[in-house]
Fold this sequence. Notes:
Order of helices and strands: EEEEEEEEEEE
Number of strands: 11
Number of helices: 0
Shape: globular
Distance between the termini: 39 Å
Largest sheet: 7 strands, mixed
Structural class: mainly beta
Radius of gyration: 13 Å
Amino acid sequence: QVQLVESGGGLVQAGGSLRLSCAASGRTLRSYDVGWFRQAPGHEREFVAIIRLIDGNTKYADSVRGRFTISRANASNTIYLQMNSLKPDDTAVYYCAARVRSLANPEFSRSYDSWGQGTQVTVSS
């Protein structure tokens, strides 16, 4: 297990930007995948993005591709989600999650064994 703490959420107008951070402790993440998920009221938890830390390979949900970027700070266990061109539909609680490097579909939340507590992102019109 690894401990994850999200930060950076807040209120932003449509078209604006936010950068979420996920700080990890308890384990080195070299052989881990770290993903971002989100959940809005009345909706299922939704995959957003993943980074495979062994090589930096990334994958994005269709709904955010081209607007969001997942990355890792150099020489640290901090993972970022840069969110640009935000839309009201992006409003949700955002969670980071970690798993040991896996071939499992990154959209499957059950494949992740560590989760943060979430950070609220609200996009107003």
